[in-house]
Amino acid sequence: MAEDLENTQKPKVILNKQRKSDSPADSSDQTEKKKVVVVKKKPAAAAASSQPAPVQEEHVERKKVHVVPVHHPAPETPQASSVSSGDAVQSAPVQEKRKATSIELSPPRPNVKVGNLADRTKPAQRPGGSYPPRGGSPSGPGRDNFSGAQAREGARDSFGYNGQGGAPRSGGYQGGQGGAPRSGGYQGGQGGAPRSGGYQGGQGGAPRPGGYQGGAPRPGGYQGGAPRPGGYQGGAPRPGGYQGGQGRPGGGYQGGQGRPGGSGPAPLPLDSRGGAGATKKGFKGKKATQYSRRNKEDDFEQKLILQKKKALDKANAIPKEIEIMETISVSELARKMNLKASELIGKLMGMGMMVTMNQSIDADTATILASEYDCTVHIVSLYDETVIESESDGSVELLHRPPVVTIMGHVDHGKTKTLDAIRSANVAAGEFGGITQHIGAYTVETGKGKVTFLDTPGHEAFTMMRARGAEITDIVVLVVAADDGVMPQTIEAINHAKDAKVPIIVAVNKIDKPEANPDKVMTQLSERGLIPEAWGGDTIFVPISALQKVGLDTLLDAILLQAEVLELTANYECRAEGKVIESRIDHGRGIVATIIVERGTLRTGDSYVAGVFSGRVRAIFNDRGEKLEEATPSMPVEILGLEGMPNAGDPFQVTETERIARQISSKRQELKRFENSRNIKKVTLDNLYDTINQGEILELKVIIKGDVQGSVEALKQSLEKLSTRDVRLNVIHASAGAINDSDVMLAAADSNAIIIGFNVRPTPQAKLLAEQEKVDIRKYNIIYKAVEEIEQAMEGMLKPDIKEEVIGTVEVRDVIKVPKIGAIAGSYVLQGLIKRSSSVNVIREGIVVHSGKLSSLRRFKDDVKEVASGFECGIGLDNYSDIKVGDQLEVIEYVEVARKLKDSEKLDKSVPSKEKAE
Ligand SMILES: Nc1nc2c(ncn2[C@@H]2O[C@H](COP(=O)(O)OP(=O)(O)OP(=O)(O)O)[C@@H](O)[C@H]2O)c(=O)[nH]1
């Protein structure tokens, strides 16, 4: 082993030496050449010897490829010339010997086989793996092996080193190696000195591939290949060369080791060893290098093609699902579906829609279109796109939070009174009244806990909040007057609460009244599913008198009890989230919003997004007007620092940074504008005219701004009543406050939207912007005036009424079939006249069987413009040839008649707009 190790280490040194000893090698060139000649003869000799042959066969059987090497045993003879058949015979024993050695050493040279493999059939030709064959003989069978690439490859394989040497050229190699058997490679390497074969091989490697390679430090193949033709060829093209190249090492190495035999034989052993391991390795290595080279290239190409194909398929694949907003441009849809816009346009034309790639189609159309490609469309909404991720509770301990209560009930049953009574009863004297703020909600302290009341009684507010996704009510207190009993709105309230799955507590009010009959209320409610606990149900009934402040504590206790059952808890540590209760403009403080915190803790300085507006909490106030530093769950607070007025029910969320808040706010505003413009179907100044011509419904978009919410609402309702089936009035935005930039931008986006300011004026900036954007701002201070003007504007927008007017009657008396033209009706004008530009209704037995235009009108053979009554004419009908004798043609013309709005059927016939406005 030690020796082996030593040997294995030597190669490099040897190789170096080889280089150094170039000259000697050169000097031996001639010899080599001679040898080469000899070698060429070898084949014959080899052939002559019957022994080698069998060996080969044996190997073939065993290893298939390794056969060749067998011949190399010849190396025994120091001289190349000795590589004869006789040598071959001797090689067997040598191999035997080597087995042991080589097994130890060999691992490193599987390449030997490579050479063999390559030359498998060549051996014979290149006897003695002789030199020539390898490198030289271009024609050598081993040619293929030779490829420079292979050589390189061989080189690369460190083990190729050994193997290569040996392996490659069975014949070639050996020859290369020193051809000489051992000396060959190694010696050559070493100085190859002595043996020309080996040495030369190595050096001469120069001239001969084999030699060279061997000599060469690297795969020989390469080096040899490179410089000298011989080498090159050998290396390159033929296996021989290649092997040699590869083998070099082996050869060289072994030689280097000085074991002549070793070197030479090395290759052989492969076979004999059966090379078991080594051989196998070599074999594999060979395959890898030889065939694999091409195979690899082929594989690579194929993989590349497959990859490209996959990429192409992938690129062209129509996704199974896509997400779109509620409208999408054809080009955008095409992009999302990996299709050409023209293809979609074609499909849309097939659906009867003439659109260009930049025009938008609605989500329904897009869905139908996509379904033709098995693609599902998901409609993404405003908030889906601009969602602020909630902070998860994680391991944070959830703490109790106060219940949020809404008071509902029939008109005049005492809702407000009850709220006030509870509030006043639980607020320190003197605090209630002047100082206390009305912020839409308040919290009362009881000895057993806090309760938050929404200060907007009635189920309308409750439902409105719900409709906006603000289901913040935990408990509903249903106020029922004991003297009045269950009334329609009581039932509505019950239904709303049940629908929202919010528990109900019944407050039977006005028990102070003599006519009060609580039992009757209980009975009536029992019939509605609210069975009192006293009667075995689970609904809490509390008799109270809001007027006399009786039973209020019991009511609060009942609420807290119910809250306990509900186990209301919240995370107090995360970023605050809540809902906007209301917002308003406060002179001196700007926009203020009341919010109820649902989870987390809100602090002064927090950045947030409320609805579509962002802001930074400048100050927090509670329902008593006291300034706070923070607000916790279920607390209603008023905050300052908004950039716009959010709507009641809008979500309120604190963001990580102010930048994020601004980004989300801007995105939401953009999407809101997008949605608003989407709502206004086909209403832009550009397509307004086309829309009218296409007879589509017109819409007038209006933005209403007023001094107080009340007048805004009144104006909104009055204007909306102006909608008819022909013209729809769409109030796209209505709120209290001055007309600002945002309003103008919204109107500008809608093209034909106007702004109505009621008792308000535009800000200077908005006025400028409106001039730039050519947005019409109309200012009124009387609702009636506003309504009247809008009504007139809508009349102006009405398309003319088109009416059919019969201008003549014609009788068909003969039908002449004209080839390529169709049927011509030989007719007689009974009354009026018929014009070439007329349309006709074909009436048969009282039924209109066809309506259409004329294709021709003739008197005898002349085309005429019109034919008056009492004359005959020939009439051709456009796209209709089923005309029959006896048919009557009703000659018609379409006449435009200006209409007034009142001609149109009001959508709401019951409420005349003017009256309502007044
Ligand atoms: N006697 C008596 N009168 C009451 C009581 N509670 C309310 N009222 C009276 O009933 C009337 C209506 O009370 P509100 O609190 O305004 O009733 P509401 O349900 O808020 O009425 P709307 O806001 O119109 O729906 C008022 O005149 C109250 O003074 C009560 O407990 N006893």
UniProtKB/TrEMBL annotation:
It comes from the Bacteria. Residues 79-88 have a biased composition (Polar residues). Pfam families: EF-G_D2, GTP_EFTU, IF-2, IF2_N. Residues 1-298 are annotated as: Disordered. One of its GO terms (cellular component) is cytosol. The keyword Protein biosynthesis applies. Residues 403-551 are annotated as: G-domain. Transmembrane segments: none annotated. Its main location: cytoplasm. Residues 44-55, 126-143 have a biased composition (Low complexity). Residues 162-264 have a biased composition (Gly residues). It is found in: Cytoplasm. The keyword Protein biosynthesis applies. PROSITE patterns: G_TR_2 (PS51722), IF2 (PS01176). Residues 400-569 form the Tr-type G domain. Belongs to the TRAFAC class translation factor GTPase superfamily. Classic translation factor GTPase family. IF-2 subfamily. One of the essential components for the initiation of protein synthesis. Protects formylmethionyl-tRNA from spontaneous hydrolysis and promotes its binding to the 30S ribosomal subunits. Also involved in the hydrolysis of GTP during the formation of the 70S ribosomal complex. This is Translation initiation factor IF-2. The lineage of its organism: Bacteria, Pseudomonadati, Spirochaetota, Spirochaetia, Spirochaetales.
